[in-house]
């Protein structure tokens, strides 16, 4: 068994069993990849992939279990490399941040500016998060962090830490009947078509719970995760928008009015997520604390020593989070 063979297996899985695409991603040849996979299957005595003619059509049950271990082994390889690289030169490395448009636009600029000036030799990359409906929405690479404003559910491979709390606001056209209402009620909101976040998102869940408690059934005309899209359609007169306060306040020269909704909806949680297999290096600790000041290196080291999410949660009891 060779490490390169394991990389071939993961590449095939990541490319939807397309061996040609997998070979291209690894800058090698398709016959070479197919040959090495066949040799590994022969050595192990099991079929990892189902085949239909010359094409791969699926992953066998034992193949699924093998690939789980392959991904762990390759993550460990990256961890070992990162450990060696930090020892040789702690000023170089890579940091990948996966996040939403709203977070990247309104919350990250200060941290990115601070980080890139302090660590000019660190490769810093911003990536969009995948849609909520996509399976495995959180990246789990050896230098990947996700900052998300929605719950992602239980995942034994991830550490999920509270980053901040966010609130929601209302945007309406300046000539709308609600424009001069300082504290609109849920009943008043429900009298107009609502444009807001998709079902399943944290912001939408908080809204649904509030309307349900009041026995009100609002009319959601449009649901989309991009707050700027929602504001645009509110401008066009399609309804009223309930979005993140960060985005709702950014309405200069738009013809919109912002109205605070803290009296109607509870704050929502936002999270920083990363793989349990990651090797946190000093520049990573620094970035985390620049974005979420409560995530000190001391606290993070305590988090990494815990063996259950309940113990991690206790570390954050009583901790005051930033509110946006």
From TrEMBL:
Which part of the chain is the HTH lysR-type domain? Answer: 1-59
**GO annotation terms (biological process):** cysteine biosynthetic process
The coiled-coil regions, if any, are none
Question: Which of UniProt's keywords are assigned here?
Answer: DNA-binding, Transcription, Transcription regulation
> In the record, what terms sit under GO molecular function?
DNA-binding transcription factor activity; transcription cis-regulatory region binding
Whose protein is this, by species?
Grimontia celer
> What is the similarity comment for this entry?
Belongs to the LysR transcriptional regulatory family.
Source organism, top-level taxon: Bacteria
Protein name per UniProt: HTH-type transcriptional regulator CysB
The gene from which this protein is expressed is cysB_1
Record carries keyword DNA-binding = yes
Is Chaperone one of the keywords? Answer: no
């Amino acid at each position: 068994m060779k490490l390169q063979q394991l990389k071939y297996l993961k590449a095939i899985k990541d490319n939807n069993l397309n061996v040609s695409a997998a070979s291209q991603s690894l800058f090698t040849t398709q016959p070479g990849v197919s040959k090495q996979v066949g040799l590994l299957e022969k050595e192990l005595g099991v079929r990892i992939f189902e085949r239909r003619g010359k094409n791969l059509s699926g992953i066998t049950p034992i193949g699924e279990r093998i690939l789980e271990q392959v991904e762990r082994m390759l993550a460990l390889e990256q961890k070992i490399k990162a450990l060696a690289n930090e020892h040789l030169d702690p000023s170089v490395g890579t940091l990948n941040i996966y996040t939403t448009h709203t977070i990247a636009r309104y919350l990250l600029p200060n941290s990115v500016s601070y980080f890139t000036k302090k660590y000019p030799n660190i490769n810093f990359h911003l990536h969009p998060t995948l849609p909520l409906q996509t399976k495995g929405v959180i990246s789990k690479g050896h230098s990947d962090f996700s900052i998300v404003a929605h719950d992602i559910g239980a995942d034994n491979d991830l550490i999920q830490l509270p980053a901040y709390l966010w609130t929601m606001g209302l945007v309406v056209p300046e000539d709308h009947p609600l424009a001069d209402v300082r504290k609109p009620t849920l009943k008043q909101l429900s009298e107009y078509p609502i444009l807001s976040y998709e079902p399943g998102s944290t912001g939408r869940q908080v809204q649904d719970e509030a309307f349900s408690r009041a026995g009100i059934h609002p009319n959601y005309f449009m649901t989309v995760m991009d707050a700027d899209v929602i504001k645009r359609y509110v401008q066009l007169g399609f309804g009223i928008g309930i979005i993140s306060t960060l985005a709702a306040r950014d309405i200069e020269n738009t013809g919109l009015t912002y109205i605070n909704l803290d009296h109607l909806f509870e704050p929502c949680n936002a999270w920083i997520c990363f793989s349990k297999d990651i090797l946190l290096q000093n520049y990573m600790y620094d970035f985390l604390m620049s974005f979420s000041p409560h995530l000190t290196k001391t606290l993070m080291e305590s988090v990494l020593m815990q063996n259950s999410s309940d113990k991690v949660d206790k570390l954050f009891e009583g901790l005051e989070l930033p509110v946006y």
